[in-house]
């Protein structure tokens, strides 16, 4: 009788473990495919992540209307700490109808790490949370920070690997020229 009771508990537990592990590994196999980094002129790869308030933001919602400054970063990244204040200055200069910063954090702690970091450094641009780091696979990044400037038609117009100084007049002129392009209807 005792063995039958053990079996009644152990067998369902084993089945549950197999099902859970099967789901984890099958999902992992699909999500671990690393894409090559997008090149200039290539369509930006769409994604959706929550912001600090839990609202899901989709990249393609900005296509046709805004120039997008997509920055992939992390709070633990020393280069990001140097770069992000220049992103903030650029954001303050250009924010409005034709421009948006989307800063995707790959911090595993998500909001717990990002929100106090943003406050500490006085960063007010939108921060999205990718606790799994899947954006790195989607955009083929090799580290952080990496930046992709996306034109109004949803195509990659500029790529910066590593920290950039976004107060640099040459970099700002790239953004200004893209902002001056007319809005476009984008079909995907």
Q: What does it look like?
A:
With 188 residues, this protein is of the alpha/beta class. It has two domains: 1-32; 48-179, Glutaredoxin. Helices cover 40% and strands 18% of the residues. It contains five helices and seven strands, in the order αβββαβαβαββα. The protein has helices spanning 2-31, 78-94, 111-121, 134-139, 169-179, and strands spanning 48-50, 56-58, 67-73, 99-105, 127-129, 146-150, 156-161. Strands 5-4-3-6-7 form a five-stranded mixed sheet, with helices on one face. It has a two-stranded antiparallel sheet with strand order 1-2. A hairpin with a 5-residue loop joins strand 1 (48-50) and strand 2 (56-58). The radius of gyration is 21 Å and the shape is globular. The termini are far apart. 31% of the residues are buried. Mean pLDDT is 87; it is low at 16-30.
Walk me through the topology:
Layout: H1 2-31, E1 48-50, E2 56-58, E3 67-73, H2 78-94, E4 99-105, H3 111-121, E5 127-129, H4 134-139, E6 146-150, E7 156-161, H5 169-179
Parallel strand pairs: 3-4, 4-5
Antiparallel strand pairs: 1-2, 3-6, 6-7
């Amino acid at each position: 009788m005792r063995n039958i009771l053990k079996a009644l508990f152990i067998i369902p537990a084993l089945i549950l473990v197999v099902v859970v592990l099967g789901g984890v590994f099958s999902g992992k196999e699909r999500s671990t495919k690393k894409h090559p980094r997008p090149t200039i002129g290539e369509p930006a790869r769409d994604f959706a992540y929550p912001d600090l308030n839990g609202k899901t933001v989709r990249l393609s919602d900005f296509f046709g209307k805004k120039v997008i400054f997509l920055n992939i970063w992390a709070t633990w990244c020393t280069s990001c700490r140097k770069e992000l204040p220049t992103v903030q200055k650029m954001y303050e200069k250009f924010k409005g109808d034709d421009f948006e910063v989307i800063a995707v954090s790959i911090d595993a702690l998500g909001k717990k790490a990002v929100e106090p970091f943003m406050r500490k450094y006085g960063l007010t641009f939108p921060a999205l949370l990718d606790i799994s780091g899947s954006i790195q696979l989607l955009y083929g990044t090799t580290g952080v920070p990496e930046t992709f400037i996306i034109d109004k038609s949803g195509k990659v117009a500029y790529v910066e690997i590593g920290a950039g100084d976004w107060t640099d007049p040459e970099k700002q002129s790239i953004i200004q020229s893209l902002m001056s392009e007319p809005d476009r209807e984008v079909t995907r």
